[in-house]
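Hi C.,

You asked whether I'd gotten around to modeling the 473-residue construct. I have! Everything is below, sequence then structure, no commentary in between.
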Amino acid sequence: MKRQNHTKIVATLGPSSSTPELIEALFLAGVDMFRLNFSHGVHEEHRERYEIIRVLEKKAGRPIAILADLQGPKLRVGTFADGPIQLKARQSFRLDLDKKPGDGRRVNLPHKEIFQALGKGSELLLNDGRIRLKVSECGADYAETKVMVGGALSDRKGVNVPGVVLPLSPLTAKDRKDLAFALDLGVDWIGLSFVQRPQDITDARKLIAGRAAICAKLEKPAAVECLNEIVALTDSVMVARGDLGVELPPEDVPVLQKRMIRACREYGRPVIVATQMLESMIDAPTPTRAEASDVATAVYDGADAVMLSAETAAGKYPVQAAAMMDRIIGRVEKDPFYWNFIEADRVAPEATSADAISAAARQVAQTLSAKAVVTYTTSGSTSLRIARERPQVPILSLTPKVETARRLAIVWGVHSVHTADARSFDDMEMKASAAALANNCAKHDDRIVITAGVPFGTPGATNVLRIARVRKN
């Protein structure tokens, strides 16, 4: 079962999409990766969804990627003695470590790390940015602030500290338990929230120890300051526009989205654009025109994937949302201007034999009107290099490792096939032909372009480019 579109779809599972029938319907509507959101639900619910997906994978005969998205630190105020309060502009308001319930003059902020990082003039955003405070005085256990923008504040509302790198690990005690569970389950990707610095990726990689790939969620302005270093260290990136939009002006988010996508293209890292893409479809069967345009923009920019969150997890129309996203992607990719944009934004290959062969494979496929580029890969790096070139034909990725096949399911244009490695040049052509025929990428006697590494089965040794005719066994 080969997708017609190059850009992939990620769907979040939740109360609206947990049955085998609904998960299969989402897959048939175009979903390539399912997201298990560990901010909600219990382990047993995630296990059930994981097992449903793996059964579906066998039935469909196509690798499906699973992302375990860790919650990360959640910074929140404490509780109030007499219910919600109303903060007014220019009034004073104190945040401290005192656990007593708050009132109109103060509230508990149970995060000493925030007080360690604050200074006079620092800003705090409460309740998804609706309330803005400015620090006038602070110490190790308190902060006196002046209300710049007021509003209603109730128990346990979120706190954001823009422009400050907090001395916090992205992995809380809960996250470490969730991570261990997800790795034992066998997920393909780990979504790492609250990434602020390159060291966060390094620390997480030590814990994961190669058992899954890392998707760095870029939702903190601090991460933007070291964007290239983070992208170089991670395996993929999620442009998490929700939290990013709380701490930054709304007009900055589209610019940063394009910058992040470009950085991922340069480093050959898959990039997912997420948050509020078809938000109105939580309650309505069709999106707004602005939402359709938002999805289209991410596709035009060259994103590997676009993501549905509450639309599929808790919405009334989960399957319709996935189908709508699939239709938008398909319409954009049929637009001649789409390929003009892709061509204009092409990334120059690095001075390596693998990159040279990948660039040549795209060019040869285009010149000869080949029907597919077939890659033999163990680690996935060969397929990632080809995808970085953005060929107009399908990328048929053959790998002996099912883990690699699943991880590549989220990569632009890649159709993963789990198969035995080639043993000789003749076997290489025969397996490539069989895969191209079986997956409706080509017909008998069509041209295909093959890349591989010799000796066969050697990871990271792409050094062969071969033009072949599809032949029947």
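If it helps when you're writing up: The chain has a mean pLDDT of 95.

Thanks,
B.
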